[in-house]
Amino acid sequence: MKTLIEVIREADQLSQEDQAGLTTHLLSGLGGAPLGPDDEELARREAEIDSGTAKLLTHEQLRKAVGR
Q: Are 23 and 52 members of one domain?
């Protein structure tokens, strides 16, 4: 059996598309791991944007907020 380090090294060699697929697969295997907002949440957020009640951030503001 391969070690975690070996698996990580191999995963680093995958294309971005394959890495995204692997990530999705691994996250879906974790019980209760959220994969993103559901349709109801998306509709609520879209309505807030359309009504002007949502506080929107620029890309630069988001980067600053997450420390990048």
A: no
